[in-house]
Specification:
The protein has about 180 residues and is an alpha+beta fold. Strands 2-4-5-6-3 form a five-stranded antiparallel sheet. A two-stranded parallel sheet has the order 1-7. A hairpin with a 5-residue loop joins β5 and β6. It is built from two helices and seven strands; from the N terminus they run ββαβββββα.
């Protein structure tokens, strides 16, 4: 399987922020931003793998600067690293004041996707070739993030046996 450059999976999307997109602080609602991040990241994962992909985890979303209705919001995503069937996608979110042109890094996110074959089983994905300093830095630090993801997932599985699945208010499980 031939390796692919980060640029081959790059997605850039710019949109306006409207009143129905904001919270009570008049800034972009975090859940809306997270949904947009997942959308562009999923396109990136598919461009890299050219097969179905599912979001395995949203590893991090860091809100760095509030996005307002006077801003355009630009999403840029690309594959930073690939394992056997997993794909790490970086998304940066830039807020641009539409009157002044000032641009600020508003958020960053890292997500992991798993590529699936026609039987919905994990399938191999191409390796990644970084070119820019940003891509190289994210690529060289990715194995440590993958290790941390694996540990975090195992801890989540261990904890999950203690979580209840009863409906609140229907089956009381208070001690």
């Amino acid at each position: 399987m031939k390796a692919k450059y980060c640029r081959e999976s790059r997605v850039v999307r710019t949109s306006r922020v409207f009143q129905n997109d904001v919270n009570s602080h008049n800034t972009l609602f975090g859940g809306r931003l997270m949904s947009d991040i997942d959308q562009v990241a999923s396109i990136t994962a598919l461009r890299h793998s050219r097969t179905d992909c599912v979001t395995a985890s949203t590893d991090s979303v860091d809100f760095l600067y509030p996005i307002r209705t006077t801003d355009a919001v630009c999403f840029e995503s690309y594959v930073t690293w690939a394992g056997t069937s997993s794909i790490e996608v970086f998304v940066k979110v830039i807020a641009e004041d539409l009157k002044s042109g000032e641009r600020k890094m508003a958020a960053t996110a890292l997500l992991t996707f798993v590529a699936l074959d026609k039987e919905q089983c994990p399938t191999r994905v191409p390796e990644v070739i970084p070119e820019t300093d940003e891509e190289k830095k994210l690529n060289e630090t990715a194995p440590e993030r993958a290790r941390i993801r694996k540990v975090r997932k195992e801890k989540s599985k261990e904890l999950s046996v203690f979580y209840t699945t009863t409906s609140p208010g229907i089956d009381k499980v208070y001690s």
